Amino acid sequence: MSYDELAYLHGKPVSTAQLRTEHADFKVFELLPFVPSGDGEHLLLHIEKTGENTTFVARQLAKHFGVKDMQVTYAGLKDRHAVTQQWFGVHLPGKAIDDLSNLDIAGVKVLSYQRHNKKLKTGALIGNRFELTLREVSDIASIQHRFEQVTKTGVPNYFGEQRFGFNGGNLQKALSLFNGQKVKDKKKRSMYLSAARSYLFNQMLSERIVQNHFVTPMQGDVFMLAGSQSIFKATEQDTDLQARLDAHDIDMTASMWGKGELLTQHQAHQLEADIVAANPKLADGLCTLGLKQERRRARLTMLNPKVEVIDERTIRLSFMLPAGSYATAILRELTHYTDMAEQAFQSQS
């Protein structure tokens, strides 16, 4: 099942729009959970990059500071075809840094820098704030209405298309890996495993919607507390589950597949087991390579949502999402969009 074939919570959108006609149409702002300490072996740089990918900037920073690539870290990967403000960490023990005015990387501007006493780790974010501009919109009113809907209901917390690579290439690489092909690059190996896991999760979530169990729980569901990764199983005594779901105090979850027993029971267990049974090569491969069972929130909820009509064919959306979630999961519920940057890339391939 392709990304477009995954179930929609409010039905497939009828409006059309263009995304990323220019880099500034897709803006991302990382939100750190801490303030740099001001001293220590690590230099934290707050950078704005335009039209460059995160790994390229990291390599250029390593070259500038004369350190190994592994000594430059970042909290998260960000789109190339965008304007993004994100944080990088450089391990510089014993090296005094007084001036970065000679740092010259195309498409990169240093917003601030400060020393910190800990390494910047992957995933060390509260979340990301997005500012997305849609152009050539066929029906502004439809997007406004659906934006209001998803603000109340949330959207399926699907992994985005970029998780699976160009034309789903990462998923094919995962199958090759499971068939015995060696992958020495640890980052690529991790990317392929993540694609396989994400595919199974998306299928489970899509099937929940098909069975009308995105808003209402199934028997045997496992829930996650809002603002936390803490999970719990429901009991017959939990009579207020629906009220807590409606209040966004808790969310249902789906499996991130790996070794170990499914935590779900009854109806929810059967749904997840059926998806796994339909994809044995992916499921068995993940277990063989040692990944363990985890749970991921089924619903993605926007914080501080705002919609602004620029003109009769242009609309701007802004919202915050927790780390590890995808803005495209919001967009696919609003409109049938054409990613102009991706289209241009494919035409050149």
Automatic annotation (TrEMBL):
Q: Which keywords describe this protein according to UniProt?
A: Isomerase, tRNA processing
Task: Quote the EC number.
Answer: 5.4.99.27
What GO molecular function annotations does the UniProt record carry, in alphabetical order? Answer: RNA binding; tRNA pseudouridine(13) synthase activity
The UniProt similarity line reads: Belongs to the pseudouridine synthase TruD family.
Keyword Transferase assigned to the entry: answer is no
Q: Does the keyword Nucleotide-binding apply?
A: no
**Organism of provenance:** Thalassotalea euphylliae
- Looking at its record, which EC class is this enzyme? isomerase
Q: Which NCBIfam families match?
A: tRNA_TruD_broad (TIGR00094)
Protein name according to UniProt: tRNA pseudouridine synthase D
Q: Which HAMAP family match?
A: TruD
GO process annotations (BP): tRNA pseudouridine synthesis
User: Which reactions appear under catalytic activity for this entry?
Assistant: uridine(13) in tRNA = pseudouridine(13) in tRNA
Q: Which residues form the active site?
A: 79 (nucleophile)
Q: What region holds the TRUD domain?
A: 154-301
Task: Describe the task this protein carries out.
Answer: Responsible for synthesis of pseudouridine from uracil-13 in transfer RNAs.
Q: What are the annotated GO cellular component locations?
A: cytosol
